Amino acid sequence: MRAIDHGIMVCLECEQLNFQYAGKNKHNCTRCGAQVYARKPNSVARTFALLITSALLYIPANLLPIMTVNALGKGTPDTILSGVVTLIQFGMWPIAAVVFIASILVPTFKLVGLGLLLYSMQRRVSLAPNQCLLMFRFIEWIGRWSMLDIFVIAILVALVNFGQLASIGAGPGAIAFAGVVVLTMFAALSFDPRLIWDAQTDENV
To answer: Model-level pTM greater than 0.70?
Structure first.
């Protein structure tokens, strides 16, 4: 049984429980005054739009150079994957691991995970709601670490600057990747996890 079946709505601003009154189209929180909705308006459509945009940006983020490592006056632009290889060649294994996890594994998992959740909502695919909720919570939690790679590149650009001896510069791929990170974070915020239980209820009706 869902809270909405008893006419109870939660305020997304202060988490106060509010009652939904019949015949009243607009509800405001009794505590903070914010507008309260039974479900986030256009949650699926907004999440789809943000997810598709981030997926399109993910292509140039991986194809365009994200950084350039110069050593002894020589250097070539590196994409995310080739940058990981370059860092390994320079013996920077911990940094290479951080870049690989934050730039390849995490964004891919977020895109695939949110896409799977949205597909299950739209197509009414029978998925275990507890597993879907766990996956969404993990996507929501891991999103805050997605910018770690951008921070690493910014730190490397600032610290590794020894003129012709060694230097690191950011590339246009870093901008596209930052866009992917921001858009996937907004996509996770716009998704209403309560829709997972709504889909399960609709299947049982």
So the answer is: yes
In this structure, are 108 and 68 located in the same domain?
yes
What lies within 8 Å, CB to CB, of 50 at 6+ separation is: 183, 184, 186, 187, 190
Which residues, listed in sequence order, are joined to residue 18 by a DSSP beta bridge? 9
**Which pair of tokens denotes residue 187?**
């996509």
Task: Indicate the SS3 state at residue 124.
Answer: coil
Give the pLDDT confidence of 91-109 residue by residue, as tens digits. Answer: 888 878 877 888 888 888 8
Whether residue 69 sits in one domain with residue 32: no
* Number of domains, the chain: 2
Contact 168, 160 (CB under 8 A): yes
The parent domain of residue 190 ranges over 42-204
Determine the Cα–Cα distance for residues 120 and 66; give it in Å rounded to an integer.
34
Q: Bridge partners of 67? A: 78, 170
Residues 74 and 12: their CA atoms lie apart, in Å, by: 53
Beta-strand relationship, 35-36 and 8-10: unpaired
